[in-house]
Amino acid sequence: MQDESAFIKELLDAKTQNKAFEALLATYQKSLYNHIRNIVLNHDDADDVLQNTFVKVFRSLKDFKGESKLFSWIYRIATNEAITFLNAKAKRNGMTNADFQEKKIENLQADSYFEGDEIQLKLQKAIALLPEKQQLVFKMRYFEELKYEELSDILGTSVGALKASYHHAVKKIEEYMIKN
């Protein structure tokens, strides 16, 4: 992608906006889908959240201040949209977030888009038992291979705190995998 500030100007200019937004979609759609899918676990839900994310990005571009990279800003929106989606869905179903996550894991085996084996399913169960922040950090670091500096920009947390969260998450997952 070209110079980020020039690209943002194209996104904001009515004459170049459509073409620039198509480039934005082409650049981020697949990685954002994977990111969101790691959080919400379900293909259809991930598609809905992805669509909501791009609508929010489009509507909020004029407010982007450039204090972080565009990538980080968009991922922050996607992360918040995914968490908001899960919280709303859990509430609609009259469940706690933890109970809702457990139900999502149970439904994962029936999801035709889930390509994992028993070990992957066991890993997802272990991840679901983690506190929300540790889940996010683990998934973004382990599955998406994001650097701590990128995580820091996206989640608004210090690199040291993220390293500690990841370390604790890994230990808890290891314990779960051994005991189960």
TrEMBL record:
Asked if the Swiss-Prot or TrEMBL record annotates the protein with the keyword Metal-binding, the reply is no
Recorded hits in CDD domains, A to Z, give: Sigma70_r4
Q: Which residues form the RNA polymerase sigma-70 region domain?
A: 25-90
Q: Which UniProt keywords apply?
A: DNA-binding, Sigma factor, Transcription, Transcription regulation
Q: Does the keyword DNA-binding apply?
A: yes
> PROSITE patterns recorded for this chain?
SIGMA70_ECF
The record's InterPro entries line, in alphabetical order, gives: RNA_pol_sigma-70-like (IPR039425), RNA_pol_sigma-70_dom (IPR014284), RNA_pol_sigma70_ECF_CS (IPR000838), RNA_pol_sigma70_r2 (IPR007627), RNA_pol_sigma70_r4_t2 (IPR013249), RNA_pol_sigma_r2 (IPR013325), RNA_pol_sigma_r3/r4-like (IPR013324), WH-like_DNA-bd_sf (IPR036388)
* SUPFAM superfamilies tied to this protein: Sigma2 domain of RNA polymerase sigma factors (SSF88946), Sigma3 and sigma4 domains of RNA polymerase sigma factors (SSF88659)
Which domain of life does the UniProt lineage start with?
Bacteria
**Any single GO BP term:** DNA-templated transcription initiation
Its family? Answer: Belongs to the sigma-70 factor family. ECF subfamily.
Which PANTHER family does the record match to this protein? RNA POLYMERASE ECF-TYPE SIGMA FACTO, RNA POLYMERASE SIGMA FACTOR
Annotated protein name in UniProt: RNA polymerase sigma factor
Q: Which organism is it from?
A: Flavobacterium macacae
Higher taxonomy: Bacteria, Pseudomonadati, Bacteroidota, Flavobacteriia, Flavobacteriales
